Amino acid sequence: MLEGCSFGTCCETKAESRVLNLSAMANTALNSTLSQYDADWTWSEARGHFESVDPEFHAVVSRLDDPIDVERRSAFESLARAIIGQQLSTKAAQTIWGRFVALHGLELTAEGVLSFSAEMHRAAGVSGQKHGYLQDLARHYTDNPDMFDAVESADDAAIVSSWTTVKGLGPWTVQMHLMFQLRRPDVFPVDDLGIRRSMERTLGIAKDAPKSVYTKRALQWGPFRTAASRFLWDNLDNQPK
């Protein structure tokens, strides 16, 4: 990077162009064996890729342990938990989720959610708005379970487009399911503030730069942008639960 330049504030240098071109070549080779549907990628593969295409980022990653995989949940349970946790601290979300699950007994089902009134859910700490979101999720699920359970061959963009028709499910929430539950390898949630703050802190990106700057910087991490995002969260000790 030329002296006095920063991401988003100067035109791309020839050196940067060469890096991006090399990254594209590397990504093409990797993508021949790793597709966006492949849930069997490993942290070791991701680390090796970062070392070859982005030594600066690899230096950050090399100081971190492999992130811990989360408990696997059904699509319905995962999305219901995400709705309940919206705009809450991790501790508050865990408390309300525990009450919500206890209210529904041993098994959380769409039919069960539909049978509960807003008042009953409010007793567990679920707001009226989130009750409406949960009801809409349950209706979509009972009408078409395959929309959520049979997505192995659906690409990431198609899943985001389909699931965000449910009230309360935005792209970020769906991306979290893609990353943590489906283990899709190449998801980059640029709307996540923690991701952007971590990139600013460790990679010299100007604070609150345009989102396109972060997305461009992450291109060379493909097809392991899920792993890169997990490392960025861990670097801030801010891993979603």
Describe this structure in words.
The two termini are 36 Å apart. The protein is 59% helix and 0% strand. The protein has 2 domains: 13-37 and 53-66 and 184-190 and 198-205 and 216-241, no CATH class; 75-180, Hypothetical protein, domain 2 (Endonuclease III, domain 1). The protein is built from 14 helices and no strands. The radius of gyration is 20 Å and the shape is globular.
Gap between N and C termini: 36 Å
Number of structurally distinct domains:
2
Radius of gyration, taken over Cα atoms and rounded to an integer in Å: 20 Å
State the order of secondary-structure elements, H for helix, E for strand: HHHHHHHHHHHHHH
Helix content: 55-70%
Largest sheet: none
Quickly give the structural class. Answer: mainly alpha
